[in-house]
Specification:
mainly beta, 4-stranded antiparallel sheet, 3-stranded antiparallel sheet
Length: 103
Amino acid sequence: MGDPMRIRAQAAGSNATVRVLMAHEMETGQRKDAAGKTIPAWHITDVSATHNGKPVLSAEWGPAVAKNPFLQFTVKGAKAGDKIAVSWKDNKGDTRSDEATVT
């Protein structure tokens, strides 16, 4: 399991803007180490988000996403006190889930 995600969810009218910073190395499988050996691919493949338990986002990622990816999205109908949960899974089977409260 990776380091905790930093999730900020801020209400604005009848919507909430959600910002997520994920801690992950995101190796493409194309770089080489100092000895010239290829560094194996290791990247997030699936990302999902829920608003009070209901799915609001689902994404499939590949090796082209940058290290420590940042994701921002808007949730319609969210208000202060609601729960936003974000989860990811990588190509090695590691997973991470974190939750934030809309402020």
